[in-house]
Amino acid sequence: MKQFLFLLLSFIFLNCANNHSNLKIEQNVKSISDEEIKKAAVSFHAWYIKSITDEKNVLVEMKIIEGENGKCQVDYNLYLNELRKLGTVSEKFITSEKLRMNGCADKISDIDWKEFKEADAYAYEEFCDFIYYYYWIKRQEPVSGVEAGEIERQDNGKIKVVLKLYDEYKGQKQYYDFGSALLAVENNKLMIVDILIATK
User: Where are the domains of the chain?
Assistant: First the structure.
């Protein structure tokens, strides 16, 4: 009987603690201003677009370099380190980025550097398609900028923000669908935990 009572009290205590934790997360999310949310939501794309349009700082997700053994080697450490410097990108997102590029890294490491340099365009598109275009804007040419759209505060404590990429010509902006950023509070900071690309 005592053991049953102990288990029952433990369950009630844990349930109350969990409800309190969920309430605290919801309160934290509700207390964040729309302006702060939008600023965090576009931070990755604002940096990404600036990086690919600045001739002095062309930074893509990864670079294929010559390894010590004459084979190709993928280097994405600079990219991942730059993401950390933003201060708005979660380690969850950084880990998912590394996993996304690992398939290409594994395949390309079997190819001779000389063969890679002399290959026809798009020769390695099958397993490294994102080295031929800008993955995070889904285009081969840069865009002019990014803006945040609709904000959805979710019950699980996450915040979904629509991302609107655009081209600008003679002061006129032409928007196109891209997707959304998913944010969460981590260590009292609003962080991008995922970027969801819209499917057509």
Answer: 34-197
DSSP assignment string, 87-106:
SSB-HHHHHHHHHHHHHHHH
Q: Which amino acid is at 42?
A: V
pLDDT tens readout for residues 123-140: 888 888 777 888 899 888
For residue 2, give both structure tokens: 């005592």
**For residue 198, what pLDDT is reported?**
84
Residues 86, 31, 158, 174: is their CA dihedral positive or negative? negative
Question: What pTM did the predictor assign?
Answer: 0.80
Model confidence pLDDT, tens digit, residues 23-47: 444 446 678 899 999 999 999 999 9
Alpha-carbon separation of residue 175 from 37, 178, 182 (angstroms): 20, 9, 20
Q: What's the rounded Cα separation, in Å, for the pair 165 and 92?
A: 24
